[in-house]
Amino acid sequence: MLTVSEALDRAQLLCDAATKAGADAADALYYCNAATSVSMRLGELEDVERSEGQDISLRVFVGQRSASVSTADMDAGELEKLVARCVAMAREAPEDPYAGLAPEDLLFKGPVPDFDLDDGSEADPQALREAALAVEDAARAVAGVTNSEGGSASHSRTRFALVTSHGFAGGYGASGHSLSASVIAGEGAAMQRDYDWHSAHHLSDLESAEQIGASAGARAVRRLNPGKAPVGKLPVVFDPRIGSSLLGHLLGAIGGPAIARRTSFLLGKEEAQLFDPAILIRDEPHRPRGLRSRAFDGEGLPTAARDIVADGKVTGWLLDTASARQLGLAPTGHASRGGGASGVGASNLHLAPGTVTPEALMADIETGVYLTELIGQGVNPVTGDYSRGASGFVIRGGQLAEPIAEFTVAGNLIDMFGALTPADDLVFRQSVNVPTLRIDGMTVASS
């Protein structure tokens, strides 16, 4: 695996070659990942995987025309052919008045800060095997668990480097650790499956195998013997593990590309009171050890903490350079790149906690549902109409009661945002984190 410095050199050489070959501007993005994972099932070794891959993507501009290519072949001769092919493709591409690199005067400048994303560890297959066995053993030890889909542990290292022809060069590395378990409770047609997992940059931040395994086993057992859900317009409570998906729908709707294409259900609602005034949703790209922390975005612009929603209102769109130009605005440092044209995305996102416990949040619900799993992709990004398959628990008399399955919850995201109330149990565990969330008035129906 290349060092960050070597990765930057590789990207710089490709970028320089593109301008020498006739490109007016170019950027090159290098990404490498090396991962080792071990899976155990029923106490026996099931799989050991070791993978290492690298990819370099080149984007060139000839006037208002652009093209992108990528390769995993780092041979000098092949890279030379790649550059020539990309420039030739750009000359034949249609003109795009919004194409181009990010504004030079807005580029990130100075040394890239250290957000402590790399603990310096190397993969230890024996330690991974022991961790995978421990997490599965903890899950299988839960009374009622009858079978296992396995426990797994993994270690990874990544390198990222971005260079542009107009002066930006930045890169960083990160380590990754993860643990997961998936087990089955019950017998025959009554079997139920569930899982738990955790990921962190530092091994010291990873939850214990015993904690993750016990959680996976308990979740599976709680799902046994599900009944039918109550139906009608009911209060719906989202478990934090799935409540984060609501922020994903919000991000898609405020992304510059969707606004520019006029395919967002929030189009024209820039000043609308979408949420309760107490709702705050914040993006924090500089959080130490954050899973998506970054000093610069996919175009080389600096990132900064931002309230995506404040006082219940969206504070503006998330913009890359192309969508910003199309909308006559400035880019916001939210460009994401995987090769080719950029998109937009947030980093470490969270919805601020409320003031009541989850128990108090549910206390006045005579009949409702508590969601622990969502199924399907029934969300219309243009209208905001929302319909998902679900499973979870009945809420009866303010308390969680029996498990339920095979039902749907439906509404419209604008109405759902307006009715959203958070509990006080926010935990920073993933890249997108929310507390327990309650939304009144959703339609619950049998599947």
UniProtKB/TrEMBL annotation:
Q: Name one GO cellular component term.
A: cytosol
Residue ranges occupied by any Metalloprotease TldD/E central domain in the UniProt entry: 121-224
Similarity comment text for this entry: Belongs to the peptidase U62 family.
Give residue ranges for domain Metalloprotease TldD/E N-terminal: 36-90
Q: Which domain of life is it from?
A: Bacteria
Q: Name all Metalloprotease TldD/E C-terminal domain ranges.
A: 232-445
Could you tell me which Pfam families the record lists for this protein? PmbA_TldD_1st, PmbA_TldD_2nd, PmbA_TldD_3rd
Which protein are we looking at?
PmbA protein
